[in-house]
Amino acid sequence: MGIRENFLEVKKSIEEVLTKQGRSKDDVTLVAVTKLHEIDEIMEVIDAGATDIGENKVQELIKKLEYLPNSIQKHFQGTLQTNKVKDIIGKVSLIHSMDRISLLKELEKRGKKENIVSNVLIQMNISGEETKHGWDEEELEKTLDIVEQCNYVKVLGLMTMAPHADNPDDIRWVFRNMKFLFDQLKDRSFKNVEMKYLSMGMSNDYLVAVEEGSNMVRVGTKIFGQRDYSKK
Ligand SMILES: *Cc1c(COP(=O)(O)O)cnc(C)c1O
Questions:
Q1: Given 20, 101, 155, 196, which residue has the most CB atoms within 10 angstroms?
Q2: DSSP for residue 13
Q3: Which pLDDT belongs to residue 232?
Q4: pTM of the full structure
């Protein structure tokens, strides 16, 4: 199957869950993760109807930016080095990977300098996996305190990468806990925080994530096939 068919298939499978749950068909934003894929492949997915694309590396994203239509929402979801903030600020719609106070402070500092407000998601690691970036719930509270003092960073929700599981049912609890946390925060009121997006679910687990309340999924492999890591 080609990229178009894969994209439409993923979209349809999400809509089926949403319909079953009585949620609106456009309740979930599907971000096509294009890292390590070529421009012609990206154009193919845009042709098929993709409105949002996601990249992981600043350099790669910047190279691709000039080819992307303005109407496309650009997401950054990889580890963002503090010294790369200046290259990316103002160029993406949403940074999913706000995972350190030093990064928050750099976004605020650069934003102030250039008068640019960055939209970010707070990256959480509630499964406690050492290899994954992100905060636990206690650290989240401290982070929100600092966010409230910012003027150039706006938090629009939470993001997580669940641990890999051969059976995504085994990590359903991660998504469920994230949704619980998301709803709790939604009920509270913070300056510079609007709990709009819950970004969770990748190729292997996006349907379980949507079942548990995700409203933004990041899907690469299932649309484009395996990535060739030898290329970069
Ligand atoms: C690569 C990546 C994805 C997409 O992963 P697939 O398994 O290919 O769907 C999603 N989110 C993040 C943060 C990624 O780095």
A1: 155
A2: H
A3: 58
A4: 0.97
